[in-house]
Amino acid sequence: MRALSLALTLAVAWGSGRETSADAAEPDIPAGYRLLYSQDFEKEAAVADFEFTDPAKWRLAEKNGSHVLEFVGTGKYKPKVRSPNIIALLSDQVFGDFVLEAELLQTGREYGHRDMCLFFGFTDPSKFYYGHIASKADDHAHNIFIVNDAPRTKIATKTTEGIKWGDDQWHKVRLVRKIADGTVEVFFDDMTQPLMVAEDRTFGLGYIGFGSFDDAGMIDNIRIWGPEVSTKQSGFFEKKEPPAGE
Question: Which residue among 63, 115, 116, 192 is least crowded, i.e. fewest CB within 10 A of its CB?
Fold first, then answer.
């Protein structure tokens, strides 16, 4: 098992041996929060936790001796309104207030909209939020977006000019959401200063997911903390069955 400790610095990501670009200690998890979900993808049955916009485009892969969840581009899914095409949704838990952490590796080509996404407050395939982390910011990239029966709209009150995914480089991300005041913060490598900030109260409880608008990448070491979680099957997308015997 990999050692997971909040006392680790960001120079080494959670005992995996992956180097990151930041060296500040990560902040504490809020009082009253507990670990609600954890996934390192070391068992093939891990795919059963998710449903996918196109299961054929997702797989468990091996990277540097560790197993990860990988997506390899767009597939047959076409959203009703302009929004991301590639989604893996945790399919049986809805979250309110939470702290999400994960490791992301972008494997696509470099261009302005080279991205990966964090989905949250997901209540319907046309009603959700997502953090879009991309190489360059514009009206359609590198922002926090809302999809509400209409093409995605940026809502961040703070963002940056973009990030550097690098070549074969893992990055640690954190997303913090509080429903009561509508605040959302997205962190990237540096867990002391948010990359993006938004405030919106349109959606409450919802599902959490990972993916991209139309690129490729890998996800590992997901952890979600919060005061509580509700069990509820979504059934929005398709399941990917694990191998027999898992």
Answer: 192
